Amino acid sequence: MKVISSINGMMKFSKSAKRQGRSIGFVPTMGALHKGHFSLIRKARIENDLVIVSIFVNPAQFGPKEDFSKYPRVFKLDLGVCKQAGVDVVFYPRVKEMYPSSYQTFVTVGELSDTLCGKSRPGHFTGVATVVTKLFNIVGPDTAYFGQKDAQQSVIIRRLSRDLNFPVRIRVVPTVREIDGLAMSSRNSYLNQRQRDEATVLNHSLELAKDLIRAGEKNPKEIIRCMKRLIGNIKSAKIDYIDIVGLEDLETVKKVSKGCLIALAVWIGKTRLIDNIIIDGA
Question: What are residue 137's phi and psi, to 5 degrees?
């Protein structure tokens, strides 16, 4: 397994692989790898000749009051995960090379970036779209892999890839959960044991929504009301948003139907967690 830190080095490696006719699967990450990342890497390993994982805590997607400085950085542990998963190359660029002092160019994906998480994290998805654009240009993957837990991000990246004509297939892999249903996230490490237990309310509220829909409830407002009531039983929980939207346009729906996305963000103490489900029948 190689570790490449320079942009030029990464581009040279990818161009050489392409000349040899080898397909590249790419998993962009911010490190602190867990079983969710492992599932993306495993999927990439099955479908491609080479697997490249980037580890880069992207400052452009953090707001001034967000957790960039304390975001977990465990590079040596991440390398172990990558090696175990059969990664061929870890791309580990420096911030100064990705965003030199003269840097001025950013990418914004219109209205999709302004809803759901975009309302409370202005500029976040501009940072995401910008770094993904740069990584696609540097790595030159045939297929890139993202997790369903970050549903809005996945929708935005699909649109980004389509609108800017990137020759990259976007694969979205199902959310990986702990035994108790909590979606795996690097930010789970911020939670103490009590908060960790309380955080399961996110998944419980989504399961409640599924049960209501199976019972015939089609009114999004009623479903959200019930979800809020359940989450409200947790004293440390503060709801950022709960919404039921179309999976392509992320616009609030008037009636629940198959393919809708139920997405939420909830603060557990000082940690903001997100989760979602796609309705597979209604």
Answer: -65, -35
- Quickly list H helices, the chain: 7-19, 35-47, 75-85, 95-98, 117-120, 124-139, 151-163, 193-198, 201-214, 220-231
| Tens digits of residue pLDDT in 146-194 | 999 999 999 999 999 999 999 999 999 999 999 999 999 999 999 999 9
Cα separations (Å) of 43 from 34, 85, 98, 109, 148? 15, 10, 27, 27, 14
pLDDT bracket for residue 19 (50, 70, 90): very high
Are 8 and 68 found together in one domain?
Answer: yes
Categorise residue 119: left if φ over 0, alpha if ψ from -120 to 50, beta otherwise. alpha
| Cα distance between residue 95 and residue 13, in whole Å | 20
Say what the pLDDT of residue 257 is.
Answer: 95
From residue 191, alpha-carbon distances to 65, 204, 237, 274 in Å are: 18, 18, 12, 14
What integer is the mean pLDDT of 224-237? 97
User: At 40, which CATH number?
Assistant: 3.40.50.620
Q: Which of 59, 3, 53 is nearest to 24 (CA)?
A: 53
Structure tokens at 239: 């709801």
Report CA 175 to chain centroid distance, whole Å. Answer: 10
Q: Looking at the predicted structure, is the pLDDT value of residue 282 above 70?
A: no
DSSP 151: H
**252, 219 Cβ separation under 8 angstroms:** no
End position of a domain, from candidates 143, 173, 203: 173
Catalytic amino acids? Answer: 37
Q: 101 and 49 share a domain? A: yes
Whether residues 158 and 24 share a domain: the answer is: yes
Note down the domain range covering 241. Answer: 186-276
